[in-house]
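new request in #modeling-help
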Amino acid sequence: MVYPLKEAGYFREKYFSHLGYVAMIDSRSAIQERLGGADYDGDMVKTIADPLINNCVLRSSRMLPVLKIPAAKPLIADANDWHERFITVKNTFSSRVGQISNCALRRGIIAYDENSPAEERERFRKDVEMLTILTGLEIDSAKSGIKPNLSDYIGKREANKSLFLRFKNIDNDNYETKWYEPTKNRRLKEFFEKTDWESVTSNLEKLPYYALMLSKETEKIKPNPQVPEKLFIFAEDPEWKEKLDPAFFERVKCLIEDYETALKRAQYLNHIPVDMKRKNDVYRILFSRGQENEYSVDRLYAAFEYVPASKIRRARRMLDELKWHLTPPEERPNVLDKICDYFSVFQYRDVFCDFRNGGYRILGDIIADFDDMHSNAGIKKHSATKNGDSENLKQLLDNRYVHGYYREDINERLRHILMPIRTRDYNGFDCKETLKCAAALGKLDFVLEIIPFSVYEEASHHGRKYEKVRRYLDDTRIGRILGIHHGAKIYREE
Amino acid sequence: MEEFWAYITEQKYTAKNKQDLSYLGRFTFNTLTEFEGLGRILTIIARGYLFHGKNGEILSGSAYDRVEYARNALCAWCSLPSKSEEPPFVNFGNLFETFPELVNEKGEGWLYRHIKNIQKFAKSNPEFISKTAQKKIDGISKGFVNEWKKKLRQMQVPIFAVNTKATWLLRFDDILADALELGPLRAQKHIISEARAQKLSSLKIEAVPTEVIYDVVSFCEANEQEDTLWVVLPVANFDCFYGNTNFSKKWLSKIPEEILTREVSNGVCRVKLNI
């Protein structure tokens, strides 16, 4: 254990008292060697002040071992030999630190388990110390080129596979399971059911079981969002809602509805695919036939580029009606002409009529892609604004994207509507009154997203009133308020 | 033809030890779970019914006139004994009289019955089933019917349907078109040309069994095209033929460049003979 000095002394006060989050260690002590890797040039460390954790460490060992990582002579290699150069670079990437760490964890579980036999504890404690040294050597091997010999530890299963690591592997696995594989929940359930937890002596190994029991015994928190009366100064008046101007309230309500509609429509339009997704299929077929260099996918697509949408749609219907894929070879040129009698297609007649390796799909893929493209363009054109949309909604759905992300652009346009440039016939919104109306409607997110400064000015904290502030903001308070916006909830105080 | 009979006749479910997967028939676990190689299996079945009679003889007339008959054969092979349904249907028990070898009155198709028989064999012969295989069989038992139902419905969607955005590769339309293009099934095994056989016999390759190299070269020769040296290799089906995944996982990558060049793109493996 290390303790801070009782008195810093004159010189330390004079030269170091301005520093924060800096731990200075006496160079004459053995602390830095215990850190293993500290080389007197400054380093980042993690300090733990939790008394519970520190007491656990003290119980295991009063005197922390000093582990000296032996300095090995660097490996000399011939820089002109390409093979030695390759091995040097390869050693930089192949690091077995993870494997060493897992080995150390398996042994450490037994070494620091009070219920393990003393002999085993001592043996594995020495193993863990050795593995610490090997970790240092493995890290240094990228520079020294010397890989430590790990054959005594890796590959030999002396300590049993850790339950904790097994649980961690299952729990961290976010890979989407296939239909024939057990789901993650199923694997976790089996893990807990098949383990005899009574016989597990190590506290670390039992952690997953304790976590499961804790989640079962702990009542789930029911989120209870805070009411405006607890958040805002104006809401301390019990009749604050009745004092709102009805006409202005209606105006704000319509604006919020338009904003939500604009976001939904923009989100839908944003997810309409624009790429030609069947190009890969066309390439696959050409590749199967060894023709990928002879015919370019883009040039095949270009043959249909200027064909009108109506003709493309007609061609797509005819592919199905005439059963293009089941056309005998001698009839294919005629049927192709019926489906698409464009000169640009004629030059690729041989490609389209060659049905080997699924070649009948090429024509269908290209026509389907173009048909989908025209169809999506039509949806985008006609869905953005509709008859009956208000002026505000039309302004919000203006197609010109400045920021490249629809939400930011809509928010920016909404701010222009709320706070337009001041002219003689100013028609903007009073932000304070807008906040009150939004709070009455339960739409705090709207205001926090668009005009958060107004929330800050009217926010109260535990009933205390704030003084009017200057232009620069108090980061801590606005962060707390924005915490509501980003998902944190303020729970009702019982 | 040998492959065709393997996929429509009754199977024998046996194994010598835990490593022997003969009870799977001419399938691997990958084929039954990921449906790898299933397109080629269905194409072989379609070719059998388009071009051949009950005894394997070549039929007269145009195969294009038997497309619906072959489509019904595929439906029968894939049939599931589902009770209440909406179209597209999955129970083709009504085809029992036309294809008694492929489906029974309850609508249990050949593949469905094969899966059930594998499960029965595993249950009554646990000494021949490894832990890994047992896990896979358990997984298949739980989810096969639902997964196959989805697949079967998807396979019946017309290839050029206007309202579909999907680009699936496995549909009955694709299978029938490929079958028509490929023509009748080969009755005899292809024999490698003498020149190539001599060159192969002089090579000593230890990493790959000799018969595997001969099989690959024989396949490439039999499927050569006039206008290209490249041949698409159905890797998953080679695994099915050998009864394990050694071909795709070990041997194929070790066949030396002096015998063949291999390239892979978009899930297609093509090879070119250099010998």
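bot summary: The beta strands of chain B are 230-232, 260-265, 268-273.
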